[in-house]
Amino acid sequence: MKNFVSVNDVTNIDDLVKKALIYKANPFIDKTIGTNKKIGCLFLNPSMRTRLSTQIAAQNLGMEAIIFNVGNEGWMLEFEEEAIMSGTSVEHVKDAAPIFGKYFDILAIRTFPSLKNKEDDYSELYIKQFIKYAGIPVVSLESATLHPLQSFTDIITITEELEKMKRDSSINSGQKPKIVLSWAPHIKPLPQCVANSFAQWVNAWEKADFVITHPEDYELTEEFTKGATINYDQDEALKDADFVYIKNWSTFNDYGKIYESDTKWMLTNKKLELTNNAKVMHCLPVRRNVELSDEILDGPNSIVTLQASNRVWAAQAVLSEILKNNG
Ligand code: CP
Predict the structure, then answer these.
(1) Which whole number is the average pLDDT over 68-79?
(2) Domains defined along the chain, listed by start
(3) Whose C-alpha lies nearest to ligand 1, atom 3?
(4) In this predicted model, what pLDDT tens digit does every residue of 173-185 receive, in sequence order?
(5) Which atom of ligand 1 is least distant from the CA of 308?
């Protein structure tokens, strides 16, 4: 693995899941592979889980993690080639990224979309420019369209839970689980990254019956959803689900809008009765009683804390692969 910006950087998802679960059982077995190495974690946007789990993962491998909140504390960066920098941008990524390349061994970046211009956001210019100019491996901590460390964590979590479900016969061994990605209401337009990325990973994993449910006009791009069944009827989609992943996203076609805030899309225990006693997932942070009800989040079906805790092992597996493949 050279960079980690999408599922396409992973040769074998199950092998990487196994590696993450080995680290979960033995966090310090590779505690020297990062000795004398540094990872620079650049945040152009806020974070809690991604920042802390990546720091812990790096430390478990003996690496030093240096955090730079570029968005608040750094010079405003310019990303366009041949820009005439007479506006608010102070430093071009062409000048900054090679310096990061000299300071660090791995560069990790969080850079959200503007949600103003679809073509700009979906070009993934920011992360591509860092890859082009840093000269060292680049890890996405969530980019304009994808959140691969989150999605890898989600597959790890589903794999773990599936094993438990097979052991207690709540699913037949050999049977594909039904995974439903369900849109949820929110008070402001959010990126499509988590939903895009989850769809991309589940489709690439090829081990589930995958259904996406959302109100009409909330279609995600087929680039990531192709292979999933789309159903506008949430109740129908939830039927017999083994896993329900709750997430809000803003509109893709008429880009970055909210059309629908109907609370009927929030998952409740009543809706959960339609499922096969499904485990409920969310990447967090979550707006309680808007996206997900208290009764679900505080109830036995929620696995959101497990998901968030698995972020460490996902990051550790990815950093370890990069360290091993890049000397
Ligand atoms: N799920 C996730 O990425 O959380 P943070 O935004 O807190 O990093």
Answers:
(1) 93
(2) 7-146+310-325 (3.40.50.1370), 150-306 (3.40.50.1370)
(3) 50
(4) 889 999 999 999 9
(5) 1
